[in-house]
């Protein structure tokens, strides 16, 4: 099929962009692809905390939000991008409110603003502890009313179509690599199809499933990042994987249930197995220090005391207030026998967010022509070495809007690129049905174990080298399987995760310092030579 605008992913980034281009070009076709059977199954849905934005200008300011973001990013943020996101953010928040998003208000009818780690002021808009789910609901309801947007479910994107598929040699140094659309595996028919488009936007989310313990849903397999890397596009800063400090500790449960940072913002206290409040030993901001500091502090306490978790103490909260603000967390804890007003909550860090990804400019343009990227799969320069809490949903909206503006201004040029180009069908010659799924499932477990054991919160040169050797073997085995069998979502997700794992390790090996989310005990100090690692 052919479409005018192709969107891969149905989270906040993809749907915001889709709505804007659909309204700007009502006679054009906008197609959104999702690999699940429901459009709302996205990373956005699982975002609990909220959206950061300067809302109360009497107490807050753009300058404060910018400074907080730069401090959290530990010297690697693009300051111009930070200013863009912070200053344009409030207008984007007003738009999702117009779409129907219901942020919590206080008894006077004003928005109830929260405060999270790294923030100097109360500026987080939220909907109880399910903010992402509320935003996703509002966006999908608006999309359903927009006639020229169609959502295709159960389609797994295999590859970005470029000159490579037309028979040309494409390398990292090739000029003008161009995206003509994508190959997809239709999971309803099990056939590989092609969708061509003049303009494609990747909003494929993160790569949390690279790790054994993650707050990300099963779909977060780094698909967009891996596809762009295979297409010889530029990937940046993959070593900066943010581990959320407080995921509910439940052995063997995946994904891990997130205990939002807003709980600590409201006064939750981290304690070790001896009941000691330990954060004051690590940072003057205590429990509200940036996430990289809190995660490393928890990791240190677990190793020091020989435990697999620490505790979050909420026993001093008013019960009604806690249930009102965090009903989802209260019910989840209660379901496993923990009354948060009487018992300590066992928590441990879990992979949560990729601060790096597909390198983009200020208009969400990637290094591949006609291909845009926004949301967690993109590296815009906002987060630097560590994301400030609740800046991700804001970034997704701002760059979806900027991608829309760039497309609108250049549409006449962009829309001519696939005229008279014949895209070949997907080549399945020489492949057979897979005989043993155990080859895929076991490799998946091995990958997660390698990354969790060797490339976690604290790293060393030896661990990184060992991880790379084992990933090389997994890569060779998986590529052989990929060449000889028919494609399946499981095989393709494994392949994408191995690529993502390789990029994380390779970038970590290049960074000869400790900065933000990347901490290497062989290089415990920061270097004066600041640089982004581009692969």
Give a description of the structure.
This protein is α/β, with parallel strands linked by helices and 535 residues long. The chain has three domains: 2-239 and 355-414, FAD/NAD(P)-binding domain (3-Layer(bba) Sandwich); 247-349, Flavocytochrome C3, Chain A, domain 1 (Alpha-Beta Complex); 438-520, Up-down Bundle (Methane Monooxygenase Hydroxylase, Chain G, domain 1), CATH 1.20.58. It is 35% helix and 16% strand. It is built from 13 helices and 18 strands. The protein has helices at residues 12-24, 62-72, 79-98, 131-144, 223-230, 262-265, 291-305, 319-325, 327-335, 392-414, 438-454, 461-484, 489-510, and strands spanning 2-8, 30-33, 51-52, 124-125, 149-152, 155-161, 181-186, 191-202, 235-236, 241-248, 269-271, 310-313, 345-354, 357-359, 371-373, 378-379, 458-459, 519-520. Strands 1, 2, 5, 6, 7, 8 and 15 form a seven-stranded mixed β-sheet that branches. The protein has a four-stranded antiparallel β-sheet with strand order 10-13-12-11, with helices on one face. Strand 7 and strand 8 form a beta hairpin. The longest helix is centred in the C-terminal third of the chain and has 24 residues, at 461-484. The mean pLDDT is 93.
Short characterization:
The chain is an alpha/beta fold. It has helices spanning 12-24, 62-72, 79-98, 131-144, 223-230, 262-265, 291-305, 319-325, 327-335, 392-414, 438-454, 461-484, 489-510, and strands at residues 2-8, 30-33, 51-52, 124-125, 149-152, 155-161, 181-186, 191-202, 235-236, 241-248, 269-271, 310-313, 345-354, 357-359, 371-373, 378-379, 458-459, 519-520.
């Amino acid at each position: 099929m052919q479409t005018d605008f192709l969107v891969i992913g149905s989270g906040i980034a993809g749907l915001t962009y889709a709505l804007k281009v659909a309204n700007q070009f009502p006679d054009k076709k906008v197609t959104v692809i999702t690999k699940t059977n429901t459009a709302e199954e996205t990373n956005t849905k699982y975002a609990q905390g909220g959206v950061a934005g300067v809302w109360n200008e009497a107490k807050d300011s753009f300058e404060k939000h910018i400074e907080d973001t730069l401090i959290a990013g530990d010297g690697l943020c693009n300051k111009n991008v930070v200013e863009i996101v912070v200053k344009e953010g409030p207008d984007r928040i007003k738009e999702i409110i117009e779409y129907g998003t219901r942020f919590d208000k206080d008894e006077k009818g004003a928005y109830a603003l929260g405060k999270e780690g790294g923030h100097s002021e109360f500026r987080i808009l939220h909907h109880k502890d399910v903010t992402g789910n509320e935003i996703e609901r509002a966006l999908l309801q608006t999309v359903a009313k927009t006639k020229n947007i169609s959502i295709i479910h159960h389609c797994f994107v295999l590859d970005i179509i470029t000159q490579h598929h037309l028979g040309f040699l494409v390398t990292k140094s090739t000029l003008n690599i161009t995206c003509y659309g994508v190959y997809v595996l239709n999971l309803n028919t099990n056939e590989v199809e092609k969708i061509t488009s003049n303009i494609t936007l990747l909003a494929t989310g993160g790569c949390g499933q690279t790790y054994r313990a993650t707050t990300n849903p099963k779909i977060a397999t780094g698909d967009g990042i891996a596809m762009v890397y295979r297409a010889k596009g530029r990937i940046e800063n993959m070593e900066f994987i943010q581990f959320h400090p407080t995921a509910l500790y439940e052995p063997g449960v995946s994904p891990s249930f997130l205990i939002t940072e807003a709980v600590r913002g409201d006064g939750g206290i981290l304690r070790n197995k001896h009941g000691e409040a330990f954060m004051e030993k690590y940072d003057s901001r205590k429990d509200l220090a940036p996430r990289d500091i809190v995660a490393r502090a928890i990791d240190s306490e677990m190793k020091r005391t020989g435990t697999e978790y620490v505790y979050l103490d909420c026993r001093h909260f008013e019960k009604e207030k806690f249930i009102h603000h965090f009903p989802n967390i209260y019910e989840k804890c209660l379901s496993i026998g923990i009354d948060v007003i009487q018992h300590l909550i066992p928590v441990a860090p879990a992979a949560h967010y990729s601060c790096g990804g597909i390198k983009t400019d200020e208009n969400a343009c990637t290094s591949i022509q006609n291909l845009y990227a926004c949301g967690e799969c993109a590296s815009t320069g906002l987060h630097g070495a560590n994301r400030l809490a609740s800046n991700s949903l804001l970034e997704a909206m701002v760059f979806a809007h900027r991608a829309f503006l760039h497309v609108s201004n250049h549409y006449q040029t962009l829309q001519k690129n696939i005229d008279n180009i014949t895209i070949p069908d997907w080549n399945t010659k020489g492949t057979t049905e897979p005989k043993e799924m155990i080859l895929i499932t076991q490799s998946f477990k091995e990958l997660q174990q390698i990354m969790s054991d060797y490339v976690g919160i604290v790293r060393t040169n030896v661990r990184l080298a060992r991880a790379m050797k084992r990933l090389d073997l997994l890569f060779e085995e998986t590529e052989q399987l990929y060449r000889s069998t028919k494609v399946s979502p499981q095989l393709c997700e494994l392949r994408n995760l191995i690529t993502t794992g390789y990029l994380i390790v390779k970038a970590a090996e290049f960074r000869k310092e400790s900065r933000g989310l990347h901490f290497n005990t062989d290089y415990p100090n920061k270097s004066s030579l600041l640089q982004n690692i581009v692969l």
